[in-house]
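Tokens for chain A. Residues wanted.
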């Protein structure tokens, strides 16, 4: 089985009122995609880095990068389309990135973008540290 080393950088004093289940699903899908699509073999050099930054204006920025094979030009263009997959022959159904995008748009009122990277795949999304007008778990 393929494996990856995950490194997380996050301020220890960050306090959020958000949707923990949404963030868990986003990160689970991103990690699953990196392992399934980004890494071609089990290697100790497979690495995922997650940097979380709390901005002064109340925004929280999540940078997610892997050092895998990266994306083809076609995959970059169609990445968030429902049912687009490069792994159909391996059982992929192409909903992972579509679900991630939908969760970020509908639940976090933001967007996810693919960032330029010399190698691997890098994404950035932001969200408010407090949800206005809705109850959330601390």
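Reply:
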């Amino acid at each position: 089985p393929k494996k990856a080393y995950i490194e997380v950088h996050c301020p220890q004093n960050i306090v959020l009122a958000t949707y923990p289940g949404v963030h868990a699903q986003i990160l689970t899908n991103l990690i699953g995609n990196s392992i399934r699509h980004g890494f071609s073999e089990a290697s100790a050099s497979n690495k995922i880095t997650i940097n979380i930054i709390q901005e002064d204006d109340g925004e929280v920025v999540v940078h997610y990068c892997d050092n895998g094979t990266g994306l083809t030009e076609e995959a970059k263009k169609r990445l968030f389309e429902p049912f687009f997959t490069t792994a159909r022959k391996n059982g992929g159904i192409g909903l992972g990135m579509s679900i991630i995008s939908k969760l970020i748009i509908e639940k976090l009122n933001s967007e996810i973008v693919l960032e330029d990277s010399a190698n691997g795949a890098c994404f950035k999304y932001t969200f408010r540290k407090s949800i206005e007008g809705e109850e959330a778990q601390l």
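The beta strands are 5-9, 47-54, 59-66, 112-115, 122-128. Residues 134-138 have pLDDT under 50 and may be disordered.
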